[in-house]
Write a structure and sequence with these properties.
Length: 121
């Protein structure tokens, strides 16, 4: 296999694994975290998430939960293998992913509210 990062000295699967990017089949960590968090978030503070705002909140939590679970799984695997820098990197990328999802969906909520305010006037 040709090395996609010439000069870096790491095989492609090591680089992808260290960054938490599961290519191919993967281990399903994101999906497990996504479904688990969606189930938990769906009924917290509301009897039935029927409004658009509640469903968006569940989606935001599910995406964040999937990201955090995948990062945690990768960090655990790296730690068990003695790859402490990989564990730290997976943790940092997971936290960054959760923060990015929060920021992006918060901006989307703000834009939705501004559109709603503009239509009511």
């Amino acid at each position: 296999m040709k090395h996609p990062f010439p000069g870096y000295g790491y095989p492609a699967h090591h680089v992808a694994g260290s960054l938490g990017l599961w290519l191919g089949e993967g281990d399903g960590s994101f999906t497990r975290g996504f479904v688990t968090t969606a189930c938990l978030s769906a009924f917290q503070d509301v009897p039935c998430p029927s409004s658009s705002a509640h469903l968006k909140r569940v989606l935001r939590h599910a995406l964040q939960g999937g990201t955090a679970f995948a990062a945690g799984s990768r960090a655990t695997a790296a730690f068990r293998q003695g790859d402490y820098s990989g564990a730290l990197l997976a943790t940092a990328l997971g936290a960054t992913g959760v923060l990015l999802i929060e920021q992006l969906l918060r901006d989307a909520r703000r834009l939705d509210r501004e559109k709603g305010d503009g239509q009511e006037k």
